[in-house]
Amino acid sequence: MKRTLFIILIVSALFLVGCGNDSGNGKSKDNENTITAWAWDPKFNIAALELAEKAYDGEEEIELKVIENAQDDIISKLNTGLASGTLKGMPNIVLIEDYRAQSFLQSYPDVFYELTDYLNPEDFAEYKVTPTSLEGKMYGLPFDTGVTGLYVRTDILEEAGYTVEDFTNITWDEYIEMGKDIKEKTGKYMMTVDPGDLGTIRFMVQSAGEWYLDEDGQTPTLANNKALAESFRVYKTLITEKVAGIHTDWSQLLAGFNNGEVVSIAQGSWITPSVKAEESQAGLWAVVPIPRLDIPGGVNASNLGGSSFYVLNTDGKEKAAEFLSNTFGANEDFYQQLIEEVGAIGTYMPATTGEAYKEKDAFFQYQEIYADLTEWMEQIPPVNYGVHTYAMEDILIVEMQNYLNGQELEKVLENAQKQAESQ
Q1: Measured between alpha carbons, how far is 154 from 46 in angstroms, rounded to an integer?
Q2: CA torsion angle for 117, 123, 128, 133 (degrees, to 10)?
Q3: In a domain, 239, yes or no
C-alpha cells in the first residue's frame, strides 16, 4: 500500500513538472501557436494588430494575444527585464517608438530577432529603415508614419483674405508674416506649442536633414547646428509675435482646434482622427505640406513620432516574424483595410497605389489626403535618431526657456552642447 502510494505521488509530481515546464518565456505546448504582443493605443496600434490577425493567411494557424500597455510602461518593462538578463515574461512582439529603438538595439543586440530574411527594406519608406536597423541588418518592421502636415481651417483663412494655396510650400517666415495678419484680423492663434515638449523643434530639425546627434547616433551636435539654431529662432518668433499660443497637455491641444480657437495644426498624420472627431467642422479643413526652414537642405516634409514592431529572441520568434512578414510586410490589401477601418497610414510603399489611398475625404473638402500624405512621406529626410533623443530634449527644454527669457541663441546652444557632452 505504501509502495503504491509512493509511485502515485512520483507520477503526479512528474506530471505537474511537465505541465509547468516552459522555455523561459511562459510558453508551453498548449499555447505554442499563440503569439503575444505588447502595444499601446487600442484605437490605432492594437486595432492594427487585430486587423492583421484576421488578414494573416500563413500555413500554420496562429492566435494573437495583444496586451495593452502605456508606451512608458513598455519602456520601463523592457528596461527592467532586459537589464536582468532574462526574457521570461516578455512578449514575442513589442511595439517601440522609432526615437527609442536604437537605444534598445545598441544596448541589447542579442535580444532582438533579425528580420532581414523576412523583409525587403526597399519596400519601406527610407526614413523608417534607418532607426529600425543596426549594422545593415533589419530588426524592426517599419509600421506607421508620422509624416507631418499643416492642417488649416479654410473658412478662417478666407475670412482673413487668404487661400489654401497661400499656405502651400512656404517657409516658416512666410507662415509667421501671414499668421500675424490673421491674428490681427481674427484674434485667433495660428497654432499652439508646448514648451515642455519639443516635438515642433524635432520635426523642424529633421525637415532639414539634421538631428541632435552626428551621423554616428552618439556624438551631440547642438552647437553650430544650423537647422537647430534656425528651429529655435522660428520657435521663439512664433511665440513672441503671438502667432503661436501655448498648450500644456494633450487635451488643451485638442481643445484648441476642436473649439475653433486655432487656425492651423502642424503635427504628424496621426492627428487626423482627432481633427475629424469634431464632426461639425466637416468640410472646413484642408492639409498642406508643413512650412520649411529657410536654409540649405530645408524641405516641406518631415516626421513626428511613429513606431515599429520588433520580435524578441523568445520561443516562437519564427512564427512571430512570419506573422509580421505575411501581414505588415507583404499584404497590400491589408493596408487598404488599415486605412479604411483604422485610419492608419503605414510605410509599406507597394500598398500606397491602392484605392484606399486615393479616397477623397469629404471632411477635408474631398481632398485625397492619404495620397498627399504618402507623397510627402517619400520626401522625409532620413536621419539617425541615435540613442539619446529624449536626453537631448531634457537639456534643450531648459535652454529653450533661457532663450525665451533673453539669453543669446549661440550661448544657449553652446551650454546645451557642454551639458550633452558631460552626460
Answers
A1: 33
A2: 20
A3: yes
| Nearest alpha-carbon partner for 190 in 205, 209, 174 | 174
In a domain, 271, yes or no: yes
Give the range of the structural domain holding residue 203, as residue numbers without chain letter: 149-302+381-422
Give the count of domains, the chain. 2
Beta strands in 139-256 (DSSP E): 140-142, 148-153, 191-193, 244-246
* Burial class of 112 by CB neighbour count within 10 A (0 to 12, 13 to 18, 19+): buried
Same domain for 118 and 154: no
Structural contact between residues 317 and 331, judged by C-beta atoms closer than 8 angstroms: no
Q: How would DSSP label each residue in 42-94? A: TTTHHHHHHHHHHH---SS--EEEEEE--HHHHHHHHHHHHHTT--TT--SEE
Domain shared by 83 and 159, yes or no: no
Number of Cβ within 10 Å of residue 74's Cβ equals 21
Q: What is the pLDDT of residues 5-60, one digit of tens each?
A: 444 444 444 343 344 333 344 444 446 789 999 999 998 999 999 999 999 998 88
- Matching residue, cell 491674428: 183
**Per the structure block, which three cell numbers stand in for 267?**
503635427
- The phi, psi pair for 171, rounded to 5°, reads -90, 165
The answer to whether 174 and 306 are in contact (CB under 8 A) is no
One domain for residues 311 and 298 = no
Other Cβ atoms closer than 10 A to 374:
23
* Domain assignment present for 12: no
Summarised one tens digit per residue, pLDDT across range 367-393 is 999 999 999 999 999 999 999 999 999
String of DSSP letters for 407-419: --HHHHHHHHHHH
Pairing state between β 191-193 and 133-134? unpaired
Neighbours of 161 (CB within 10 A): 11
Q: Are residues 160 and 284 in the same domain?
A: yes
Cell numbers of 350, please? 507597394
- Check which CATH number belongs to the domain holding 310 and give it: 3.40.190.10
Assigned C-alpha cell, 346: 503605414
